[in-house]
């Protein structure tokens, strides 16, 4: 297939481009060329906000829109495209209001989420425009993405604590659950959508088994063959000042996804791959001052 991947330079979009190129597809990436490209992809060097006729001469079998964050992003891309077949948009679980009953289901009414703010409402506006313009498009709503190439200071932060034999500071009692989704599994699911073309158009995607903070930290330390020394922090300390996730527990119902792709990669295996990538790409992590806050306030 001839596939367009928006972005293609960091984490989700870059992994997606490499995944489909590795499967033998003719993959094009659309970005400004400010960072290295994945091997075996064809680079369309352009600013997505001033595309003009750049894309009109191409005909794509599929568009994998991994890097649109707003209604305008989607509109500009659709206006610029020539002919295309399938369209898959990676949205977010942030489109579900935190007040809805859980687990969140695809048919529930979406709206503002107080935790995610404009990020969620912008993703929802992008979804709505896409559904209006391309009714047959597929929309994916993942939780926290993880795996190799993740340049966010999440599992990387825990690996750094483990490497330094430092204790790990856990919010409250550590029982808050997190739901993850391996970027490789998301690519596999996109591949299955392109192959099977199911009638359903919106899918929650993610590991059906959430994990609590204590277990997640333990798995991260375990990748290095170490055991975490956990220290617990009260609710009076802002969680995001020392821990990489919001104080927000949610769960997606991924039944529909599992009917098409019943198996997901075990989290421990995902974290092993994450660490292998992290060891050689430390400079790419977008760090937050979590270690500094801990050093100044807890030690």
Q: Can you give keywords for this protein?
A:
299 residues; alpha/beta; Rossmann fold; UDP-galactose 4-epimerase, domain 1; 2 domains; seven-stranded parallel beta sheet; two-stranded parallel sheet; 9 helices; 33% helix; globular
The chain-level structural class is alpha/beta
Estimate the helix proportion, in percent.
Answer: 25-40%
| Strand order within the widest beta sheet | 3-2-1-4-5-6-11
What is the total domain count?
A: 2
* CATH architecture descriptor text of the largest domain: 3-Layer(aba) Sandwich
Instruction: Name the shape in a single word.
Output: globular
Low-confidence stretches: none
Write the layout of secondary structure elements.
Blueprint: E1 2-6, H1 11-22, E2 26-31, E3 42-45, E4 59-65, H2 71-80, E5 83-90, H3 118-133, E6 138-141, E7 144-146, H4 155-163, E8 168-171, E9 177-178, E10 180-182, H5 183-196, E11 202-204, E12 211-212, H6 213-223, E13 230-233, H7 255-260, H8 267-280, H9 290-297
Helix pairs in contact: 1-5, 2-3
């Amino acid at each position: 297939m001839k596939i367009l991947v928006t972005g293609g330079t960091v984490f989700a979009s870059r992994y997606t481009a490499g995944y489909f190129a590795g499967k033998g597809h003719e993959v094009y990436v659309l970005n400004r060329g400010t960072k290295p490209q994945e091997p075996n992809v064809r680079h369309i060097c352009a600013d997505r906000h001033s595309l003009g006729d750049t894309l009109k001469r191409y005909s794509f079998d599929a568009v994998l829109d991994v890097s649109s964050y707003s209604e305008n992003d989607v509109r500009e891309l659709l206006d610029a495209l020539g002919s295309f077949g399938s369209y898959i948009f990676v949205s977010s679980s942030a489109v579900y209001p935190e007040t809805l009953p859980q687990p969140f289901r695809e048919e529930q009414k979406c709206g503002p989420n107080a935790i995610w703010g404009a990020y969620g409402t912008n993703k929802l506006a992008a979804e709505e425009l896409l559904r209006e313009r391309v009714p047959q498009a597929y929309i994916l709503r993942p939780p926290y993405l993880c795996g190799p190439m993740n340049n966010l200071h999440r599992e990387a932060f825990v690996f750094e604590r483990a490497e330094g034999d430092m204790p790990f500071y856990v919010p409250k009692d550590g029982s808050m659950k997190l739901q993850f989704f391996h970027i490789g599994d998301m690519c596999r699911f996109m591949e299955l959508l392109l192959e099977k073309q199911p009638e359903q158009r919106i899918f929650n995607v993610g590991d059906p088994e959430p994990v609590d903070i204590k277990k997640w930290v333990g798995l991260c330390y375990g990748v290095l063959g170490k055991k975490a020394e956990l220290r617990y922090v009260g609710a009076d300390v802002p969680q995001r000042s020392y821990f990489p996730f919001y104080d927000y527990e949610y769960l997606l119902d991924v039944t529909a996804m599992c009917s098409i792709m019943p198996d997901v990669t075990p989290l421990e295996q995902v974290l092993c791959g994450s660490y292998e990538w992290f060891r050689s790409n430390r400079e790419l992590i977008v760090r937050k001052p979590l270690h500094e806050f801990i050093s100044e306030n807890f030690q």
